[in-house]
Automatic annotation (TrEMBL):
Organism, scientific name: Rhipicephalus microplus (Cattle tick)
Keyword match Membrane: yes
Cross-referenced PANTHER family: O-ACYLTRANSFERASE (PTHR11161), O-ACYLTRANSFERASE LIKE PROTEIN (PTHR11161:SF0)
Segments traversing the membrane: 222-245
Pfam families: NRF
Start and end residues of each Nose resistant-to-fluoxetine protein N-terminal domain: 55-207
Statement: the UniProt record of this protein carries the keyword Ribonucleoprotein: no
Protein name according to UniProt: Nose resistant-to-fluoxetine protein N-terminal domain-containing protein
Source domain of life: Eukaryota
Listed InterPro entries: Nose-resist-to-fluoxetine_N (IPR006621), O2_lipid_transport_reg (IPR052728)
């Protein structure tokens, strides 16, 4: 938000550096913001990287991301922009920001010899804000006339599964870290941000489980259900092709 406001102010300023213009390069401002964020993140990253829970490869990739971001490396910018941010239209009930799945997976880091050393890794982050924070937020919006004529989103249902409010955010990291290590990093950042974070990978294991056709001895009579899996898979793919169309599917 601060970046947007700063950019808006400068872009709408009729004079920049004594010359009349309608545009301004925001590189200097973005550099200052990036430097400030690096100062905030370096102590957290240093503490996490020295933890025995992280492998040397994962710890090294953590600093590589910070270094690449500071140097504005193309791969680092690509990876950062592939992350999901605060969901759009959140006050209307949108809680999902998936980020750029294809952009993340196509991220490549090369060494001086042109060899690929790291690749992008996509996972899903579920953020569960404390209930007290949600209650305070809803009350503040109601006080200024928001949510008028609507049901309270926190009490609209008593179903624990449906009523549990979570932000689903796409997260792009380097593939040097395992699932457990990414969970540890998320839990470590939770100390810095008072939120409860849960990691769920859109992992290959889920696909293997869905496509599995072997049966155990105690459920031979249910083998016919494997046939229904095929129809369900095609139905899901068919729906996604029309409901979740993204331009990157037209790439070469």
């Amino acid at each position: 938000m601060a970046i947007v406001l700063a950019g808006w102010t400068w872009l709408n300023s009729p004079f920049v550096s004594g010359e009349e213009t309608s545009t301004k390069s925001l590189e200097a401002e973005l550099t200052d913001v990036g430097g400030m964020l690096m100062k905030k993140m370096m102590p957290v990253a240093s503490e996490l990287a020295t933890s025995p829970e992280l492998s040397p490869e994962c710890a090294g990739s953590l600093f590589k991301i910070l270094k690449g971001t500071r140097a504005r490396e193309p791969w680092a910018i690509r990876m950062i922009l592939a992350n999901g941010l605060l969901p759009n239209n959140i006050l209307e009930g949108s809680l999902i920001s998936l980020g750029g799945y294809e952009q993340c997976l196509k991220t490549r880091v090369f060494n001086s010899e042109g060899e690929v050393t790291h690749k992008g890794q996509y996972c899903t982050l579920f953020v569960y804000p404390p209930w007290s924070v949600l209650e305070t937020l809803v009350k503040k919006f109601q006080a200024v006339g928001e949510f008028t004529g609507r049901l309270n989103p926190l009490t609209v249902t008593t179903n624990a599964k449906i009523g549990k409010k979570a932000l689903r955010i796409g997260l792009c990291t380097l593939n040097s870290c395992t699932e457990e290590e990414v969970k540890f990093l998320a839990a470590g950042v939770r100390v810095w941000l008072p939120l409860r974070w849960f990691m769920y990978f859109s992992a290959i294991s889920n696909t293997k489980r869905l496509l599995k056709t072997t049966a155990r001895k105690d459920n031979q009579n249910l083998v016919f259900l494997s046939g229904f899996k095929v129809f369900l898979i095609f139905w899901v793919i068919y729906a996604h092709c029309y409901v979740l169309i993204q331009p990157e599917f037209a790439r070469k």
